[in-house]
Design goal:
By secondary structure, this protein is of the alpha/beta class. The protein folds into two domains: 2-89 and 189-306, Periplasmic binding protein-like II (D-Maltodextrin-Binding Protein, domain 2); 93-184, 3-Layer(aba) Sandwich (D-Maltodextrin-Binding Protein, domain 2). The protein has 13 helices and ten strands. The chain has helices at residues 15-22, 25-28, 41-49, 60-67, 121-130, 146-154, 167-173, 198-203, 205-223, 228-238, 247-255, 269-282, 299-306, and strands spanning 2-8, 31-37, 55-59, 81-88, 93-96, 111-113, 140-142, 160-163, 177-181, 192-197. The strands form two sheets. Strands 2-1-3-10-4 form a five-stranded mixed β-sheet, with helices on both faces. β6, α5 (121-130) and β7 (140-142) form a beta-alpha-beta unit. The protein is globular.
């Protein structure tokens, strides 16, 4: 078995990994997965570059940010990160405190982000801009991954944050509400991807392709309606914070063609274009970005499909 240390953001989109691990699918490809959920994108990228982890499940924007020198922190080594497979389109929901009824109610109130200039921050900036607010109207506070951000809104420390499932369903169940969905903000968005370093991939091709093959088998299993009940059980077992009464809604979002897992591990060209356009508009130092090949290499995915 080849051990692989994998670091992902917590959330329902990890279900194909949970399934492939529990069902012994990764073992078929001589891969043994050790999955860690990251507290923040900064921790994730720093430790991916340091070799503590070989593969990351992350936002596509994070890969672009650090490759372009626009990340939240400076990386000592020159980044050689690339996305090798898509994961999810993802729906980001602006979850706000119960007393917040409109964007105007957010003025002067702080919002929690993972990091201020990477990940999904630019979706939130666009939401505010579309509502006629400036970024100065709402203090942006870097808090970390979704569980910590949601906890900070739940406690009243911050007025809102962006969430994915199952955290959106958890928030709704507790009386918080969604002010806007990213589906109303941008038409297409490449959310989650799997990424690694080019230097590691070139020296560990068999391990990388084994991971891809195992993930794709797990993904196909999850997307098969015949496995629906067992898939729910696996999700609840791996994410016990999900209320069993909400699991059907969580699964519906996860399996949706607009908000969920990307069949065959595909990356979405229109969604990638949106990420690059948002980063060109908001990121500093300012750059006009337009070449996806700088951040993507699908050759390993294509080879795995053919093997």
């Amino acid at each position: 078995m080849t051990p692989l240390n994998l670091i992902c953001f917590p959330g329902a989109p990890n279900l194909p990994i949970f399934a492939a691990d529990e069902l012994g699918i990764f073992k078929k490809y001589d891969i043994e997965i050790d999955l860690t959920t990251t507290p923040s994108s900064i921790f994730q990228i720093e430790n991916l570059m340091a070799g503590e982890f070989q593969i990351a499940g992350t936002a596509f924007d994070n890969i672009v940010a650090y490759q372009e020198g626009q990340g939240a922190v400076e990386i000592a080594a020159k980044p050689d990160l690339f996305a090798f497979m898509g994961a999810t389109q993802i729906e980001l929901s602006l979850v706000v405190a119960p007393e917040i009824e409109s964007f105007d109610d957010l003025k002067g109130k702080s919002l929690a982000l993972d990091a201020l200039a990477t990940g999904f921050a630019f979706i939130l900036y666009r939401m505010l801009e579309n509502a006629g607010l400036s970024l100065d109207d709402c203090p942006m506070i870097p808090v970390g991954a979704t569980p910590d951000r949601w906890a900070s809104v739940q406690s009243g420390e911050h007025a809102g944050t962006l969430t994915i499932e199952p955290f959106t369903a958890m928030a709704r169940a507790q009386g918080f509400h969604v002010l806007e969905s990213s589906l109303a903000t941008v038409e297409h968005y490449q959310g989650g991807v799997f990424a690694t370093r080019r230097s590691w991939a070139s020296n560990n091709e068999a391990a990388l392709m084994g991971y891809i093959s195992g993930y794709l088998d797990g993904l196909r299993w999850v997307l098969n309606p015949d496995n629906g009940e067992q898939a729910k059980e696996i999700l609840l077992r791996n994410m016990p914070a999900i209320n069993p009464k909400a699991v059907n809604n969580v699964m519906a979002k996860l399996l949706s063609s607009k908000t969920g897992l990307t069949p065959n591990g595909a990356l979405l060209p229109a969604g990638i274009d949106t990420v690059l356009q948002l980063r060109s508009h908001y990121a500093q130092p300012a750059k006009v970005l337009g070449d996806p090949d700088r951040y993507v290499d699908l050759s390993y995915l294509e080879a795995s499909r053919q093997s």
